[in-house]
Amino acid sequence: MQFTYYGHSCFSVEIQGKKILFDPFITYNELAKAVDVNKIGADYIFVSHGHDDHVADLVNLARRTNATVVGSYELVTWAGKQGIEKTHPMNTGGKWQFDFGTVKCVVAHHSSGMPDGSYGGNPLGFIFTTPAGNFYYSGDTALTFDMELVPRFAKLDFAVLPIGDNFTMGVEDAIIAAEFIECKRIIGVHYDTFGFIKIDTDKAKQAFADAGLELLLPAINSTIELAAS
Q1: What is the pTM of this model?
Q2: How many Cβ atoms from other residues are within 10 Å of residue 224's Cβ?
Q3: Which partner for 208 in 18, 69, 150, 215 could form a disulfide, CB atoms 3.0-4.6 Å apart?
Q4: Could you tell me if 45 and 13 are in contact, meaning their C-beta atoms sit under 8 angstroms apart?
Q5: Tens of pLDDT along 117-158?
C-alpha cells in the first residue's frame, strides 16, 4: 500500500485502484508549501472531524475531483450545503463495505465544529480492512480505553496516530495507544504544524523504539510503501 503524507494530518493511500485522501489541510499549512493541491487526486475523502485544520481544502478538492466525502452525518450535511454532491454519512460504531474494502467508525475523544461555527457531529476514528492491508486512523483524539476494542475489529498492519500533544495525544499516550491497538508500526501525524504541537522528533522516535515500536515520520510530500504483514 502506498502512503503519501501531505502534512499535519493529511495523507492519502491507494487501495484497489482507489485514491483515498484524509483530512485535507494543505493550502494553509506553511510547512506544506511544496505540495501542489491542484495535482492531488481523490476518489474518496475521509474526514475525522470538522476543525479548520482538517477541512480547509475539503470543498475545493471534493469539487475538483468529484470525490465522495465520508464523515459524520453532520459533517457531510455541511459539505452538501457547500455544493458537494457525493457524500456518505457515517457515525460511531457503524461499518460499511466500500469498493476498496470495509471501513468501521470508532470513538475519537475530541471536539468538532465546522468552520462556520455549526455542529460537526461526533469526531471519528476509522478502521480500514482491505485486500492491500489493514490500518487504523484515530483522527484527533485523547488516549482512551475504547482503543482496546480495535484489535477485535482488525489485525492492523499500521496505524496513524496524533503525537503532537496539547490538542491530542502526545508521544507517551500514543505509545500506550499502540499497545492497546496491538500495532507496532505507527505513523505519527498532527505535530510541528503550530507552536502548540512542536515536538522533538528524534526523542519521539527513540521513545517508540524503547517501547519496541516503530514510529514513522514521512517527509511532507513524500510517499512510502507499506507492505502488509
Answers
A1: 0.98
A2: 13
A3: 215
A4: no
A5: 999 999 999 999 999 999 999 999 999 999 999 999 999 999
